[in-house]
Batch of 2 targets.
Target 1
Amino acid sequence: MKRILTLLLAGAAFAGVPAIAQTNAPEIPYDADANFLKTPDNVYLGEVGGVAQNSKGDIYVYTRTGHPFVSLGGSRQFMHGGSQLYQFDRNGRFVREVAKDVYGFVFANQVRIDPQDNVWVVDQATNMVMKFDPQGRQVMLLGRKAESINIPTRAAAEGGGGEGGGANAGPPGAGRNQDVFSRPTDVAWDAQGNIFVADGQGNARVAKFDKDGKFIKSWGHKGSGQGEFDQVRSIAVDAQGNVYVADGNNHRIQVFDNNGTFKSQIANLGNPQAICITPGANQSLYVSNSNPPGDIDTAGEIYKMKLDGTMIGKFGKAGRLPKEFGTVNAIDCRNDNNLLVGEIINLRVQKVTLHPAG
Amino acid sequence: MKRFLTSTCALALMFCAGAAQAQLKATITGVPEIPFTAVPNFLKVPAGEILGESVAVATNSKDHVFVYHRSSPTSKLWEFDQNGNFVREIGKGYYGFEFSHSVRVDKNDNIWTVDEGTNMITKFSPEGKVLMVIGRRPPAVNGAVATRTGPNLPDQKYLFCRPTDVAWDPQGNIFISDGYCNNRVVKYTPDGRFITKVGSEKPGKALGEFNLPHGMQVDKNGNVWVADRSNFRYQVLDNNLKPIKEITNLGVGWAACASGGDHQYMFLSNSNPNGNVPGSWDITGEIYKVELDGTVVGKFGKPGKLAPGLQVMHMMDCRDPNRPVLGEIESWRVQRFILQPTPAKQASAR
């Protein structure tokens, strides 16, 4: 039986279809507003990498607006543009573009807001984690954009592989003991301000820095065992400082203590691509079993659970209509049961309101 | 002539797959010329602006004209009013715009763009907001990817390879012709869910196979007309994409347009090839007006760099079958023709 299951899982992975996830979770009734964010004429969201709300209700969207360009006529080729950071107010009205034309914005993957309302942006192409203060000024950077690109390059193999700038002599995906990332995806902090970077889709590790950006340690490499990863897609830290890592192609969330020691895992989550832990004393964990960008006939639901993995319920499915989800890459859960959900293939953010029973 | 071209294609498949210079004199004879005039200075482009390759044109119910043209830094979607005055640009900087191929307006005046650079089909509301997207742009995080050579990759339900056109049946089901590196037509529900397809990534000559399905329309009966360009024909499919017949006597299958009006016609174009190929102006460039049963009732249009000539007519709008709007690749121009109406076909003549 175990062998059959393994074969089935291997087949599912080959076909790019997430493993069957939590089919018994109760449905949570919900509403969704797909037109919550009001963009001016001629401002269009592209694929939404990240969405996050600060303490005042301001909403930041880091989006792949497209049209990155490579310069011609130099001794090397340089890549610029392709993603933008937009700010909206609590009512969804467009406020401004933040950090226009900034050097590190090419392929948006995530934006998160820390407790001091600083805005952290993670870019998967420039391999940078960028911290901006609430006024939009750059205050700290992790990683460095490659100076130039090679032409022709081979597409990084889907599902991991290319170690990029993070390779060293260690196991594949272990990266270097420094802030050199390979397709990083997400960032989180503990109560002391230590920084945890999900690194990522090229590397397969978590890197920890102190609040001033000094490298402390990293853990993990490519694999499926405890403390190993295959596509680190998202990361969150709870009030106790435990680290939750969405381990996409292993269909699970792994939970570590603050120093990276494996504690437990929450399995059978399909393709966990976006996770969020609510603030406050009684914390909940949201995780999206995101559908592949090329298929809307599978997965797409979002789970709500307790931090120990006890299922509370699920909502949604993959699709293109309002209230359906198209490859969720970001969940903001600052306000429990009032979520902002960012989607890749539907080029939008939905405001989702849960109506839990009782 | 056709046989010669076919064997040439077999010898030089790569060249013919591009089909940039393929030309074929139509074998149909005795088709009456439809007299027409061209509206002078039809579209009033704002001062300082210039249309690019005007490969895609459409009108809405108010006779506004939409042009999705190849401009810089990307393709642009411009709206003009019924008098040809510029109204606005839609989708400036939009993620799905790179290299235009088609624009169509549905019965609710939503505007659909087909982009063969991003492989995205986008449904805009009449106000210009994105309502739905089908297909996905290859992610830029992969960097500059080497130009692909060799056989096409296997086709996928929801991803396209240089798609060419979009159409709807009376029920609102969505049809997409796909394209330059797939060779198929795909049918989706109005919500964008896959129903069925015909063809695959492989080019082929049999009915139900395609070699560059370049333009497509669905008639009022729900039948799907496909301009099967590098096969030098049109294919007509039923609503479930089963082939009904082919039309092989109208030259190259470049473009198809299903008219509005009580009596629906299909317009099919034997456009002259790109590149001003020697002799091409003598044997191509005409557009046929066809009954839904296939009867050809007339033709109009001549190749030419100067209006009212057509230099590679790429796509036309025929909401009003007597006032078509025509977009050209190589003359960066959109024209409106006023056709002399053809007599309505008499039922007793059948």
Target 2
Amino acid sequence: MEYLLHILILICIYVILSASLNLLAGYAGLLSIAHAAFYGVGAYVVAVMALNWHTPWWVNVVCAVVLSGLLGALVGVPSLRIRDDYFVIATFAFQVIAFSVLNNWVSLTGGPMGLPGIPHPVILGWQVSTHLEFLLLVGFFCALTLWVCHRIVRSPFGRVLKAVREDEVFAQAAGKNVAAHKMLVFVIGAGMAAVAGAMYAHYISFIDPTSFTVMESIFILSIVIIGGAGSLWGPVLGTVVLVTLPELLRFVGLPSSVAANVRQMLYGGLLVAFMMWRPQGFLGQYSFEKGSGRE
Amino acid sequence: MTGALLEAEGLDKCFDGVKALADFSCAVQERKILGLIGPNGAGKTTLFNVLTGFIPSDGGKATFKGTNLLRLPPYRIARAGVARTFQNLRLIRRLSMLDNVLLAFQNQPGERLRNVFFRPRASTRQEAENRQAALALLEDVELAAKANDPAEALSYGQQKLLSLVCCLATGAELLLLDEPVAGIAPEMREKILSVIRSLPGKGKSVVVIEHDLDAVMQVCDRVIFMDAGAKVSEGTSQEVRNDPKVIEAYLD
């Protein structure tokens, strides 16, 4: 039973990550591979504050979101000036920098040793400690994230995001401040990723930099692509598939040393297969081919 | 010239030593249609790109109702009231026609994220009104029946018509139309020309780039003939048509 709850909690965390990345990549066409960096920033801010200063849980979460959002703005200033492949490379660079900061700032982050013993959160006197309680907490934030995404993509703001993805020149000619829209959605995505990080840190109670590598970013992006970029429920379906599929491998009876490699191969194989035969993913309407309006 | 809506003076633009605009000046009068003709590479589209902020000019002045247009970003120019269409037809092809027109509306409360979450009523009310207005615009050109189809499902001529509707939907006073009837069937050509002819009646001023001389003569109040980035001849369509320099250029 606890195992099942554990899977559900992981699914909720990854839905927050993939739904927020979908806002950037699926709707605004910003193919960021720095999402794990913002996820890590959220996790570390919460962990450092809870361990060192014993500040209330909600203060930590708010700080994590704000700090990650500010960092998003800082990264956005140079990287959003460039487009397409160059943007991907700029976010990759930030991802690498973020990892090496987490890995080397030993006095704050514990370096490769990580931060153990992150306490369970206490929310208005409610001590969250069992798996079921964690599921309720993470599930609430997961639902909140989906609701926010839903509101954004169904609004005229979301329509502008789609226009930015399809044809920036048209959007500008229609009087849309393309740069401001990109920046805003990038900051929001960074903030949401930090929420997922905060949940993860408290739930696992131990974090180290290896959870927030570029591989993790690519995994989140795979969820978005396989689930269906630019569709609200795509990331949810993608998460369910990509989180549970490797778990099923456990029951096949592979030795664990083999299973880890098989898992990586499975992700890679799936991604290639989708790119070839269903580039828009399960539920998406849009593939990442360049719109015909682009130059 | 006084009372002009748009005044451009001494515009210069060089691409790698090739003069695309050479000391080009023009004025667009209110509620008039100005035609811009000339051979390929004469600098007509470059003029539009400079006026709408997509390309920086090397020199000169351009004012729209007293506002200096040069150095403003394209979206500010569109908001100030100068909208354009593109020669190579730009639409959001994978979105519906209705969404394309809706994108062109200005000052939408729902495009500000804080309104989406904190003033949802105002946003949805305005959105409903905009939908009606967008449908009415599509109705005017008999495209409303396909309002929810993606723009890419339309014929080329219909797409050109839609891009004209989008341009109109920005609410801009000055519309810069880049080859609005090039390469489309005669019937649709007539339809688009009649829409253009109706624009001054709606308080709009227009500049049209067009190779179809017959179309230019039909709709334009004044015509400028451009070559090598400079103005060669300006006058009524008759005057320009009879100008020996123009005849020579077109006979070449």
